[in-house]
Amino acid sequence: MKNQSVGNRIDYISILLYIVLVIMGWMTIYSASLPLEETSIFDISQIYGRQMLFIGLTIPLILVILFSDAKIFERLSFVFYGVGILLLLGLFVFGVTKKGQTNWYQFGGFGFQPSEFVKTATALLLAKYLSYSQINLKYTKHQIIGLAIVGIPVLLILMQPDAGSAMIFISLIFVLNREGLPSWYFFSGIIAIALFFLSLVIEPAYLIGIIFIIMVIHYIFNRKISRNPIVYGLLYLVMAGFAFSVSYVYDSVLEPHQKDRINVLIGDDVDMKREGYNLNQSMIAIGSGGLLGKGYLEGTQTKGGFVPEQHTDYIFTTVGEEWGFVGSITVILLFVALFLRIIYLAENQKTKFSRVYGYCVATYLFTHFFVNIAMLIKLFPTIGVPLPFFSYGGSSLWAFTILLFIFIKLDANKVNEW
Amino acid sequence: MRKAVLPAVIIITSLLLIVRIFYLQVIDENLKLQSENNAIKKVFDFPERGYIYDRNGKLLVANQPSYDIMVVPREIKNIDTTEFCNLLHITKEYFIKKIEKANVYSPRLPSVFLSQLNKAEYAAFQEKERKFEGFYTQKRSLRDYQVNVGANVFGFITQVNEAILKKNKYYNSGDLIGKQGVEQQYEETLRGIKGVKYLLRDKHNKIIGPYKNGQFDTIAQQGKDLTLTIDYELQKYGTELMVNKRGGIVALEPKTGEILALVTAPTYDPALLVGRQRSKNYTALYHDSIAKPLYDRGLQATYPPGSPFKIITGLIGLQEEVIDEQSTFYCNHGANFGRFMKCHCGLHTLQLNNGTYKSCNSYFGNTYKRTIEKYKDSYYSVDNWANHVKSFGLGQFLGTDMPIGSKGLVPDSKMYKRMYNGAKIRSSYIISNSIGQGEVSTSTLQLANMMAVVANKGYYYTPHIVKKIKGEVLDKKFTTKHYSTIDKQYFTPMIQGLADVYNVGTASNLKVQGLELCGKTGTAENKIRVAGKTYQLKDHSIFVAFAPKENPTIAIAVVVENGYWGNRWAGPIATLMAEKYVTGKITRKDLETTMLNGSLLEEYKRIENIIFQRKVDPTKVQDSLNKIKVEISDAKKEEEEN
């Protein structure tokens, strides 16, 4: 009874956007990995051939999700989360180290990255926890549990260390904020990030002066909150301390490659042949596309292989080069349309579980999208996160597909809920 | 409110991405340029430079292949520097310096590492080329000079400099370009257009195929051959006659304006500026600031014209009708024009004919006085005179097809108003102009052109050095007659006077059997100021001529610096040149030998000593003083005999 009409109720707009993005993604990978001699597009020895296979394998995956019991995701969320955490812990013993990060299991020719799975598991558990009727994020205890559900995988992933994935989890603060976490968490986070970058660009001594002036102005015009000078004073001290500690963290805690990434962003003393090479080549490829691009399969930077990892994290550079500004904006708008559609659907869910989960999906996808593209155009430090549905790789494609289609399943199932 | 946070963040950040991408793709042009630089490789095919022939079809300048070693600093890998340097016979310091310099120009673009290897060096290097990553050879064509004269006519080719690279997009670092002479003037004709192939390359600099299937590629266009108006035999003869002298010879064909010979002395063998020694040789030539072998004395140097200017003074007098053929003036070793102007003509009653052939200062002083006093307004008179003079091509660029030249000077009312604060000019102030000594100055080319006007009885064609370019029509300005302001009939008595210069006048010792020559001797005073003191130097020897008298085929001007007086050096040289060109042989072998072997180097050494204020051995000073005395008395005797 539940499943018979699933085909009528699934959201075709989301699915259409998904299909368009996956197809464009494959076309871009084809261009970025095209060898000089002619081969079949199904040639498994080629990157685009394998990606074709990965895309084909998403079909059974999608069918399994759509035709399973929608309740199973909610019921098994504790199990998924528990397994996920165990998998993360297991990495310390059985994990494979790639590029300094121990975040990978290897079974013969097949690799598996548990953090991809944990993303979905965390979203499910967070949705489950917040959907209990007695939970209210105004209470400190509930805040702590909610933050802990996100925080535990963040800690484990930071130990791998994989800052990129950790950042994706931290973005779930958007979901908690939506569900009633006091705003100051959210704003403190934003202010902390802003202060971090500002204190790298501006001398801390000047920075605390600027903060002081802003706080004085805020104090004078503040009408809403009680104007307690002691609170203002303490806040000021915390921010000043933070500003000063950043330079300490920068000098003593950050690894050299992390410093490079930040230096590259703020344009500090960068060698374009070494640490600046990736970003420079990426900007050249995108910038050389112009308004209309060089034409599909005509990108000189893409063909010459100047951009490293072009079929994975840097795939958007090929879009920029070959399809130009018009193509770039099209891809961005397609993504934005998908995000807004998911949020719209989430807001219209009848159960809190579905809503929170949908919100998590939108947040995850958006964070990947923004961090990935922003790092290519020097708006964000270089962090290795894939562009959803575009970047090459079965693991990430399937993870995003599962993440999205669980929500589409929940959405299709909403008429059965009351 | 909380519902709106995530959608708002999504929309705002996406707008941020779009704005940033818009900036990178549409506004910032720099990135496109960088993309072209690193993904597209241009390979050039340099066409052979056009050949240069003389007017009779003799090949003067051809080409030889040469090889440059190019370097792309970024691509240098694991090189055995010692082996590399030994192979090319260079020092390690040179290697380091060159790589640094290339790196400054661009680490990614090729620069010339070592230029103009000969075949043997190239063969040795090519064998091991693949061992030296980052270096490759580029074939170019270099000049192969078939003759050892005419360096000033040809100019030379050299690597383009920074200034040209910035101005002219056609050239790339290391390309060759013509400098000076016809190589510069006809650069685009001679060089042709290089072909370009656009190739795609990958990050390892490996070529991965043609860019856009070669649709932007172009084929090299061969340079065109030039036929010069120069007569090689005459050019060579003039060069030989001027050995160990300084000065210039310009010979023109009056009825076309074609330059038959353009000699400057001292000169150099054009082959000096080809090959690996080029830059060393060029530096040596460039820094010789006394003899100035790179300075074209025929085109660039200006001198007071001296007596040849009397031709113009006389013609203007006739045209203005202040004199006629029978007008008579008196000379008593000179004449008084407010101040006394000396004369060595030795006659007492003078008319146009004997005034000309005896070069009487008094006669032409009086003629000039009448010309300037003809109108009440002395400034009008001066301008009227100046316009006549300018119609002979003096006081202005002639507009030849050589990249250099000199305006010379013809004074006019504007100049004299400044000099005399607007007061009325009296002819006595400027009487020296009448005999070519005052403010007037001319280049040797202008003097030759003036003789062409006389030979043509009233017109000239703009002198030019290129006779024919394959497949092109000669510039119209070289086939347009420029008329002087003097009527044709006035030239006839003047030409008779010039013929009598050879018959009974100041150059009667230079008469050639069976050839009727017309000419005029000249002597130009010459001073220099060194360290606040003025030194009188030996006069310049000047001679102008054309031949034969009827249907002239050559007009010539010769200046020999510090050559004492007109028919001591310049006269014989001009006459020998004219005889050689018109008759094809030389009748007075002894005169020829004297001229070929004659040297003025001692004289030039003396001037150099003055310039550098060198202390000279007193006994030598005495010797030279005695010598000068003898020479002066000789000169006086000779002048008196004439």
UniProtKB/TrEMBL annotation, chain A:
Localization terms from the record: Membrane
Principal location class: membrane
TM helices/strands, residue ranges: 12-32, 47-66, 78-97, 117-132, 144-172, 184-217, 229-250, 323-344, 356-377, 389-408
InterPro entries the UniProt entry points to: FtsW/RodA
Membrane topology: Multi-pass membrane protein
One Pfam family it belongs to: FTSW_RODA_SPOVE
Keyword annotations from UniProtKB, A to Z: Cell shape, Membrane, Transmembrane, Transmembrane helix
Database matches in NCBIfam families: RodA_shape (NF037961)
Identification of the protein by name: Rod shape-determining protein RodA
Organism, as annotated: Flavobacterium proteolyticum
Lineage: Bacteria, Pseudomonadati, Bacteroidota, Flavobacteriia, Flavobacteriales
From TrEMBL, chain B:
Domain called Penicillin-binding protein dimerisation: residue spans: 47-209
Pfam families: PBP_dimer (PF03717), Transpeptidase (PF00905)
Family annotation (Gene3D superfamilies): DD-peptidase/beta-lactamase superfamily (3.40.710.10), Penicillin-binding protein 2a (Domain 2) (3.90.1310.10), Penicillin-binding protein 2a, domain 3 (3.30.1390.30)
Every Penicillin-binding protein transpeptidase domain range: 247-574
Main location: membrane
Keyword flag Membrane: yes
Cellular localisation: Cell membrane; Membrane
Coiled-coil segments: none
This protein's UniProt keywords: Carboxypeptidase, Cell membrane, Cell shape, Cell wall biogenesis/degradation, Hydrolase, Membrane, Peptidoglycan synthesis, Protease, Transmembrane, Transmembrane helix
Protein's UniProt keywords contain Transmembrane helix: yes
Membrane topology summary: Single-pass membrane protein
PANTHER family attached to this UniProt entry: PEPTIDOGLYCAN D,D-TRANSPEPTIDASE, PEPTIDOGLYCAN D,D-TRANSPEPTIDASE MRDA
Protein name in the entry: Penicillin-binding protein 2
Origin organism lineage: Bacteria, Pseudomonadati, Bacteroidota, Flavobacteriia, Flavobacteriales
